[in-house]
Amino acid sequence: MSELTLLIIGAGGHGKAVAEAALLSGEWQRIAFADDRWPELRETFGWPVVSDVAGLAVLQGTAAGAIAAVGNNAVREQWVEVIRAAGLPLVTVVHPRACVSAYAVIGAGAAIMALAMVGVDALIGEGAIVNANVTVDHDASLGDFAHLGVGVQLAGGVKIGARAWLQAGCSAGYQVVVGDGVVCAPGTVLRAEGVVAG
């Protein structure tokens, strides 16, 4: 069986965490990174940095899939477009110690990290991040390129807009709706009477 290589765009902290999740999942055997610090940066997490972001097109055929791994939502969205323009398959990475319902819908390019829980009929958008120890309970939705920081807790039915960022420790009770592009400070408690608009 040939070894499958995952190309991770972004060799920072989140990129390393995604690399570890991918390797532990057993779906990927090798990692290569692309990062704009190349060629000065040649290696991270024991794997090679092989290109800058602009050079992805020449890597077509060298990796079985690619994922954009950076916390900044706008940058991650730009990188997904670069991945697609380079003709590389956009893939999702799920840590093996995440609990994801078979009835959840997970968009391409999403990253679901260790100890996250994604419930039945939850919807995770394209390129979204569900970070470590996050709960996205039943029927909740996370828009494209949104980001849930470590320890965020979403009750059932919560709706988080595209490119929104709930920073570490935020919690959202039932019926909460967070608009597109909203940024919530760490530890914010969101209640239905305090719907956050974009």
Q: Any chance you could write out the topology, listing elements then pairs?
A:
Blueprint: E1 5-9, H1 13-25, E2 30-34, E3 43-44, E4 47-51, E5 65-68, H2 73-85, E6 93-94, E7 99-100, E8 105-106, E9 111-112, E10 117-118, E11 123-124, E12 129-130, E13 135-136, E14 141-142, E15 147-148, E16 153-154, E17 159-160, E18 165-166, E19 171-172, E20 177-178, E21 183-184, E22 189-190
Profile the largest sheet: 6 strands, parallel
Number of domains: 2
How many angstroms does the end-to-end distance come to? 48 Å
Instruction: Write down the overall mean pLDDT.
Output: 94
Query: Helical proportion?
Result: 10-25%
Textual characterization of the structure:
By secondary structure, the chain is of the alpha/beta class. It folds into 2 domains: 5-91, Rossmann fold; 94-190, 3 Solenoid (UDP N-Acetylglucosamine Acyltransferase, domain 1), CATH 2.160.10. The chain has helices at residues 13-25, 73-85, and strands at residues 5-9, 30-34, 43-44, 47-51, 65-68, 93-94, 99-100, 105-106, 111-112, 117-118, 123-124, 129-130, 135-136, 141-142, 147-148, 153-154, 159-160, 165-166, 171-172, 177-178, 183-184, 189-190. The chain has a 6-stranded parallel beta sheet, covered by helices on one side. A 6-stranded parallel beta sheet has the order 7-10-13-16-19-22, with no helix packed on it. A hairpin with a 2-residue loop joins strand 3 and strand 4. The longest helix has 13 residues, at 13-25. The protein starts with a strand and ends in an 8-residue tail after the last strand. The mean pLDDT is 94.
